[in-house]
Amino acid sequence: MSLKHGLLGLLNAGPMTGYELDRSFKRSLAHFWQAQTSQIYRELTAMEEKGWLQSEEVIQTEKPNKRVYSLTEAGNEELQRWLSTPETDVAKAVVVRSAFLMRVFLAGEMPEEEVLTMLQHFKEECLKTLGSFASNREAIAHYGAAAAHEKRVKYWELTVMYGESQCRAALDWVEQAIFLLKDEKKHEAT
Amino acid sequence: MSLKHGLLGLLNAGPMTGYELDRSFKRSLAHFWQAQTSQIYRELTAMEEKGWLQSEEVIQTEKPNKRVYSLTEAGNEELQRWLSTPETDVAKAVVVRSAFLMRVFLAGEMPEEEVLTMLQHFKEECLKTLGSFASNREAIAHYGAAAAHEKRVKYWELTVMYGESQCRAALDWVEQAIFLLKDEKKHEAT
DNA sequence: TTAATCATGTAACACGTTACATGATTGC
DNA sequence: GCAATCATGTAACGTGTTACATGATTAA
Fold it and tell me: B39: which nucleotide lies closest, measuring CA to C1'?
């Protein structure tokens, strides 16, 4: 149930519309939790039903009307409850789900050139993603300048550092994997 | 749709029962794709309906009866089709979903000691997981000795290497994070 | 005039999780 | 006598994904 709690966390900084939440989400949390716009609207409806949020419609003339959500007492308590309940499942903290690794695992059924192409493609993705972390840092610097919520910014930064370190490790791995496969091919040839 | 394709891949090595698939899965793929036993049975039923598998009931007297699944032509084609269709979604290759990082992101709403406890706990998980990769390597060595499917073993090994490198990176990160938080506290004290 | 931004959703489906049920055999 | 292994599932629920629908304003 982390999407709901992510939204509670964002709303803790102040009321927002679904649209704004969607953008905040994509700017800050998307590197470890991806969510579709439609899912966010659905969760907001569900959370209001649970009493964690309240909303108010704001009529606009120049733009479409919008619905502004804010945390209730119950929502705040739920956030606190979730944060103070440590994860019991050992595996979930570290283990991730990766369709890419599934392909690697099954790569024995593919021609080797295709495997190499796949790895090369993965490498490019890693490089791109590393770049996106750099822009993330810029965004942080921008918010950090406004200060006031230094604490929040500090932890946001930590999640970005985590992403960067994972990404660098993935890059090292893929380079080594490519090397190993190529090296093997060379030996086969001789 | 990777769970289905993982199962297809395992069955490509020979017919198996749901129970055996479950154990194979947990032994080899579980470090990048976790699946509940009940989910595996459900997927098997669905895949047989799609014509990717066929099954046969084996009557046993000393043990409960079992149902042995094997790949059909269509199943094999589907596996090939999936393997040769590269992932189009850029983000999915690298981005992962992590409730732990969600907690870190929201850690500003927690007392700092709790954050430290959480990080320390995460560190222990990392260490445990690193250990489990070691046992994974032993399992590989065991299968590798039987040879015949060297290719499969090679790629299996690569997925383990990936897990290990990610895990080590996570460990480095958490140690640094703990250091940063403690250091900050010290400066506040003075 | 075309794309981007603002703004909200519904419907259907796919996939993941949890709880529960059954029952025999084997080893400690 | 109790836990583990073998062996298979159903039901309900929760979450994630995809496709679709609407419609105004503003900048290139």
Answer: C16
Q: Are A163 and A134 in contact (CB under 8 A)?
A: no
**Phi and psi at residue A17, in whole multiples of 5°?**
-90, 165
Name the closest residue (CA) to the C1' of nucleotide C11: A38
- Rounded Cα–Cα distance for residues B26 and B181 (Å): 36
How far does CA B156 lie from the centroid of its chain? Answer: 11
Instruction: Give, in Å, how far the C1' of D16 lies from the CA of A14.
Output: 27
Question: Is residue A31 within 8 Å of A140, Cβ to Cβ?
Answer: no
CB of B112 closer than 8 Å to CB of B180: no
CA at B102, C1' at C8: how many angstroms apart?
26
pLDDT of B186 reads: 79
A40 touches strand D (CB under 7 A): no
Residue B17 β-bridge partners = B68
Cβ of residue B64 near strand D, that is under 7 Å? yes
Residue B9 and residue A109 in contact, taking contact as beta carbons nearer than 8 Å: yes
pLDDT surpassing 90 at residue B134? no
Q: pLDDT tens for residues A123-140?
A: 999 999 999 898 888 878
CA of B58 vs chain A CAs: smallest distance (Å): 28
pLDDT at A110 over 70: yes
Asked if B83 and A103 come within 8 Å (Cβ–Cβ), the reply is yes
Taking only the tens place, the pLDDT of each residue in A136-175 is 888 788 776 665 667 889 999 999 999 999 999 999 999 9
φ, ψ of residue B107 in degrees (nearest 5) = -65, -15
**Is residue A2's beta carbon less than 7 angstroms from any atom in nucleic acid strand D?**
yes
What lies within 8 Å, CB to CB, of B98 at 6+ separation is: A32, A33, A96
Identify the pLDDT of residue B146.
63
**Can you tell me which residue has its alpha carbon closest to the C1' of nucleotide C23?**
B64
| Residue of chain B with shortest Cα separation from A83 | B103
Cross-strand bridge partners of residue B56: B68
Round the average pLDDT of chain A to a whole number and report it: 91
First to last CA, chain B: 55
pLDDT cut 70: percent of chain A above it:
96
**Position B107 pLDDT exceeds 90:** yes
Contacts of A153 (CB under 8 A, 6+ apart): A140, A143, A144
